[in-house]
């Protein structure tokens, strides 16, 4: 999927900087009442997740945030020591800051976090998993693409009632083998896990969009969003 091709209205192209994280808020004219909160990968910005989110839920309100740690020509969510080791103080500080941001953004824009899906990719997915573990109750539904465990010391958080989709890439040689450890960790904390593998590397694409879209459908027999 070409993540560079996407059309924006003047209103939706505005980068908002009135909260602790810069973000874009997209509200379709025919919004369904759904909400996706988007966290991009490392070295890019909040624009890269928007095409994927529109594939998943074209009528959803989108809150696409930007990480605060500079990396190359873009941003990331917390400091990196090696490709698989991260600054623990940075993780905790930025996770706490994002928890406050999410709560304030929801209040300001009339969003229900309990009904929102947090969609994270790579470094953004790792921040979402940290949110679940360090700030229980904030995230009730999360789709994590190419994620891995990042906390050295994980609290005994109760994640009962939290739905998590984890999608790994079969050819993702660095991060793919680490995804099962995250599945185990979140399962042990009580989360309802759906783990999938797609035929790709670390990049995301149409297969991810299809899986997340299907996973988000309400259970058969339940009411759908009008």
Set out the fold topology:
Blueprint: E1 23-26, E2 35-39, H1 50-56, E3 61-65, E4 69-71, E5 74-76, E6 80-82, E7 85-86, H2 88-109, E8 117-121, H3 123-134, E9 141-145, E10 163-169, H4 179-188, E11 192-198, H5 206-215
Parallel strand pairs: 2-3, 2-8, 8-9, 9-10, 10-11
Antiparallel strand pairs: 1-3, 4-5, 6-7
Helix pairs in contact: 1-5, 2-3
Q: Into which percentage range does the β-strand content fall? A: 15-25%
CATH class: Alpha Beta
Sum up the overall morphology in one term.
globular
State the secondary-structure class.
alpha/beta
Number of domains: 1
Task: Write out the strand line-up for the largest beta sheet, numbering strands in chain order.
Answer: 1-3-2-8-9-10-11
User: Span between N and C termini?
Assistant: 29 Å
Characterization of this structure:
This protein has 226 residues and is of the alpha/beta class. The protein has one domain: Alpha/Beta hydrolase fold, catalytic domain (Rossmann fold). It is 27% helix and 22% strand. The chain contains five helices and eleven strands, in the order ββαβββββαβαββαβα. The chain has helices at 50-56, 88-109, 123-134, 179-188, 206-215, and strands spanning 23-26, 35-39, 61-65, 69-71, 74-76, 80-82, 85-86, 117-121, 141-145, 163-169, 192-198. It has a seven-stranded mixed sheet, sandwiched between helices. Strands 4-5 form a two-stranded antiparallel ribbon. The longest helix has 22 residues, at 88-109.
């Amino acid at each position: 999927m070409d993540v560079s091709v996407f059309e924006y209205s003047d209103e939706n192209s505005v980068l908002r900087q009135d909260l602790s994280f810069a973000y874009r808020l997209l509200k379709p004219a025919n919004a369904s009442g759904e909400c996706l909160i988007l966290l991009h990968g490392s070295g890019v910005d909040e624009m890269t997740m928007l095409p994927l989110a529109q594939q998943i839920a074209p009528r959803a309100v989108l809150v696409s945030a930007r990480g605060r740690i500079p990396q190359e020509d873009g941003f990331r969510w917390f400091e990196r020591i090696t490709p698989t080791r991260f600054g623990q103080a940075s993780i905790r500080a930025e996770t706490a800051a994002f928890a406050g941001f999410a709560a304030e953004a929801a209040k300001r824009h009339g969003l229900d976090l309990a009904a929102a899906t947090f969609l994270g990719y790579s470094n953004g997915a790792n921040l979402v998993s940290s949110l679940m573990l360090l700030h229980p109750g904030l995230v009730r539904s999360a789709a994590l693409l190419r994620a891995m465990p990042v906390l050295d010391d994980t609290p005994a958080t109760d994640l009962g009632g939290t739905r998590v989709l984890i999608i790994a890439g079969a050819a993702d040689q660095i991060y793919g083998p680490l995804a099962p450890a995250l599945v185990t960790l979140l399962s042990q904390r009580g989360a309802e896990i759906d783990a999938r593998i797609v035929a790709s590397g670390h990049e995301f694409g149409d297969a991810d969009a299809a899986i997340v879209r299907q996973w988000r459908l309400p259970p058969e027999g339940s009411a759908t969003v009008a």
